[in-house]
Design goal:
Low-confidence stretches: 1-7, 204-208
Helix content: 25-40%
Shape: globular
Order of helices and strands: EHEHHEHEHEHHHHH
Distance between the termini: 67 Å
Strand order of the largest sheet: 3-2-1-4-5
Oligomer: single chain
Length: 274
């Protein structure tokens, strides 16, 4: 018998945040590409729920319910790609760095892929993760042009929207805007995941806090976006400021959770109004 041991598998970790989608997810695509390039590597995905953090920012129970529904759909979609998914429940962002460091060490994670978040508490959390030694690789999921790339002639950020928007359009017009496809499966389809729920005190049983009035899922979000572009976009400038008119896109809940990406929205609009 040989004394040699089979090397432990190398892991990449996909950390979903405000990007609860498979389509046009730069971090997920990068994670899948890394796994394919490293022999024997595997990919696992996680979502970290932080109830106390949410409450400190007055997140409404209806939004928590909407997140929970999409996390369940995300788990099902990942299973179809052969990617294991795990829900992590911590109390707040303060617990994330130490937990994630231990998690990565135990699993043998060599890369952690995630979408960058611009909010101050999220930035502090990510910096703490980097300071802890977590191999965090961030991509800009929340915007088309990365922060700091749209600057005035002095090299500073714009303070007035109109000149900023002109410069933004000038830069964006020079870039190819094509959403990324859903990554190809990394392995055989996994069994149907068990229903995922957050802690009981955050579950919504009241109709007042149920998010069922909003259809869930990437497919539904894309259909709502398409309907807006085909039926309302041409009159949006005139109708958006009148509450009595049904003139808005109604896609903000999906953008807030990252079920739709800004690049998907812009590409769809350019397809209709080149």
């Amino acid at each position: 018998m040989s004394d040699k041991q089979t090397p432990a598998a190398k892991y990449a970790l996909m950390w979903f945040r405000q990007d609860l989608r498979l389509t046009d997810n730069q971090a997920l695509t990068a994670a899948c590409d890394w796994v394919r390039q490293v022999p024997g590597a595997k990919l696992r995905a996680i979502y970290i729920a932080t109830p106390s953090q949410w409450l400190s920012h007055d997140m409404a129970p209806i939004q928590i319910d909407f997140i929970q529904r999409h996390v369940n759909l995300l788990a099902q979609g990942l299973a179809s790609l052969g990617i294991e998914f795990e829900l992590i429940q911590l109390d707040s962002f303060k617990e994330v760095p130490s937990f994630l460091a231990s998690y990565c060490e135990k699993l043998g994670v060599e890369r952690v892929f995630a979408g960058r978040e611009p909010e101050i508490n999220e930035q502090k959390r990510d910096q703490a993760c980097l300071d802890t030694g977590i191999p965090l690789v961030l991509s800009d999921e929340h915007c088309l042009l990365p922060p700091g790339t749209v600057l005035n002639l002095s090299g500073d950020m714009y303070k007035v929207f109109t000149p900023f928007s002109r410069k933004w359009r000038e830069i964006a017009a020079k870039r190819a805007i094509f959403p990324l496809a859903v990554p190809a499966p990394l392995g055989p389809m996994l069994p149907e995941p068990k229903p995922i729920s957050f802690k009981e005190r955050f579950q919504s049983t009241s109709k007042l806090t149920s998010s069922e009035q909003w259809a869930a899922g990437e497919g539904q979000a894309k259909r709502i976006l398409t309907a807006f572009i085909q039926q309302k976009a041409q009159d949006y400038k005139q109708n958006r400021d009148f509450p009595a008119l049904d003139g808005t896109s109604v896609i903000s809940p999906y953008l807030a959770l990252g079920v739709l990406s800004p690049r998907q929205c812009i590409a769809a609009l350019l397809g209709r109004f080149p």
